[in-house]
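User: two proteins, same treatment. go.

Assistant:
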Amino acid sequence: MNRKQHIIIILILGALSTISPFSIDMYLPGFPAIAADLNTTIDQVQLSLTSYLIGIAAGQLLYGPLLDRFGRKRPLYAGMALYILSSLGCALTTSAETLILMRFLQAIGGCAGMVAAMALVRDLFPVTETAKVLSLLTLVIAVSPMIAPTLGAYVTATAGWHYVFIILAVIAALIVVGIYTALPNGVQPDTSLSLRPKAVLTNFYSVIKNPQFLTYTLAGGIGSAAPFAYIAGSPDVFLNIYKVSEQEYGWIFAFLAAAMIGSTQVNTLLLRRFTSEQLIKVALTGQTIIGTLLVIGTIGGWYQQYSLILLLFLFLCGQGLNVPNASALSLAPFAKQAGSASALMGSTRMGMGALASATVSFLHNGTTLPMVGVMAFCVIAGLIILLIGLKLSAAAPEIVAQIGPPEIKEATALGEVKL
């Protein structure tokens, strides 16, 4: 693979991975307009975000076995078609209930891109490079929250929120063209895999029982649910509590997204000297400290708009270290089952994100506390799970596949990395 092909593949995989961030972030500034147009409340509109996250969590479990059984592209095309149709359904909806349903179907289709992108990273790149590749993907993903809310704010203000979903459908159609023309197929279909429920569950179980996968998927999953609490709560916090305009909210969201962009690039540099295991531990520890300060300061009434934004920025910097390293460590032990492992990892993440989002909505009390409280809980729980998992695996260090400096990496024939 030459450098040009490498860049093109990263861009396409990044575009596939940005489908969900765009779908989540682009309509956030339109929450008040959607609520007014559909004669409902912002709390009800927030449930369309929760239904989207539930759809992603459920859909990834569906696509994992399909991607392993039929290859990467056929299920991907089917998912993208569903995404395009349901996006148009969102644009044409006239009730909050229909919007919630269409968002669920939109997620079922769009999550094919997330699972396929992760599996293709494992297919197309050596296991010792996956953390770096995932950092680059995270960079592409992190750009979308800078663009999506700002674009969504201006689209909502000038043309109406319905056009947000029309634009999403057009973007998805363009990605399909890129998949068809420039994306390699990845591993060949495995016709020996059965899609019967018992066989699928057995395959999932063989992935889940891997201690390394379980530790980093759970720790990284609940830790990465914190931004979903922020996403669910930030429209109410900034638009209603701090009374910023839709356009100002878009720029605030873009500024905070820059935290992840910068930290993913720092992560790529740090991987030259440190292991992924070390970096994720530092990230969750730092986020735990900042999350605790957010809760204490909110209760004490310490923060104004700009001080809150600054602490949120520092908190979200941890995601650039958490997400790519947890993903790489979760997928490292798998070669043949990369699709199923990617699906389980993504489903866990989005399921926890949906729970965090729903909790913020349920605890809504007109203050910032529900948002920052759920954010803090997520990273504290993630750190505890990580420390317990590492302690349990210390008795069997051969299962821990660290990804970091070249001198400690040794790829086996099965695609595992052992110390």
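Protein 2:
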Amino acid sequence: MDRRLSRRTIMTGAAATAALGMTGCLQNPDPSGGGGGGGGEKYTPGDTPGNGSVSILGAFGGQEQEAFMASLEKFEADAKITINYTPDKDFTNTIQQRAGAGDAPDIALFPQPGGMFDLAGKGLITPIDAFLDYDALNSTLIPGFLDSARFEGRVYGAPMRMACKSLIWYPKKAYEKGGYSAEPATMQELTTITEKIKADGIAPWSDGWDDGQATGWVGTDWIEEFMLRVHGPVVYDDWTKHRIPFNAKEVVEVFDIVGELLKGKGNVLGGTDAIINTPFSEAPLPLFEDPTKAMLVRQGNFVTGFFPEDIQANMDDEVGVYAMPTWEGGFDGQPILGGGDLASLFTLNDDTVKVMEFLTSDAFGGEWAAAGGWLSPHRTFDQSLYSDSITRQVAEIASGAAVFRYDGSDLMPTAVGGGSFWTGMVQWLQGTKTSQEVCDEIEAGWPK
């Protein structure tokens, strides 16, 4: 990446921080005003008794379901509430169909905000300020998390787990032997490190975008990461919500910056052809070959499940991780890009509120943390409950973030976030279209 880009004229950190502070004031404390959701009156405990049973619909099953239910056992016994959880691989469509037919579960766990916004707009979801202590909840969460669930001024879901994407992984032994810093303060400093790696005859980065019909989503993450770092969360929100066009100069600029990294000679193992043809799950493998073929891979916390089995068995000794650094001259703070399951309430009564209070608190998830594969969205969660030091490192990175933002493509209309953005990234990486051309085409196809 060219260090000359570090002094571009962009929103200053102070201005971005001030504007970000304004977004925190958008929550409407008056349940009768604003938004499109249901639950028009403030909930009062005792007014609407439950029947001792609460139904929950979510997208995850298998071992995740087992860990989820284990995390609820003590609560169920203490509260004398039976929780009936139903996993559905087609959750996105099922929740729309059931809610539209008047057969919604009491609580739904949305893996992306889009479907939740659709149902909130139809008045089918109760905004959380009607039954939760919004300020108390917001005070324990990673900053900005609740903004991901905001629709027309009110928040309709609260996170019960998170995914952290802004992570850079490296093979600890080879990386330390090479003497490379594991604490770059900025992306410009990381560029200096990658130049040293290249000088040592090793590719700095490994990357893979192949995922069948979903090929290209990894590329959208790169753009989102840099939009947050270069231009800050306010511009990021304007972009994902289409308050600025997809082909705004800020977006085109970020495409060009990312292009210097991914398309730069010798920066990525195998070049752009390898990126397109390598399954995203195989991108980390060259880091752990002997000798090491690449030193860095940028991917979310889930990527550890694709490491070689012998590496997974000894991750604390074999794997290193640090946060994707900030951009010098960009947003003044460490942003984190990620996702999470958002709990939303369809049925308002004493039992469902108790379950929502627990699910969305920092007391939930201890058993899931011990089982692995889960992160709490709360800064106040007891991190000693995580099963390994790598997970604790990731939790510390997320907890220390200045701001959290949801994956941008998940916030955009499906035709863009799961369509033209993906295909546009492939065309751009292959060089068949320029940054401006790709952004222009995505903007032209944005649903009216």
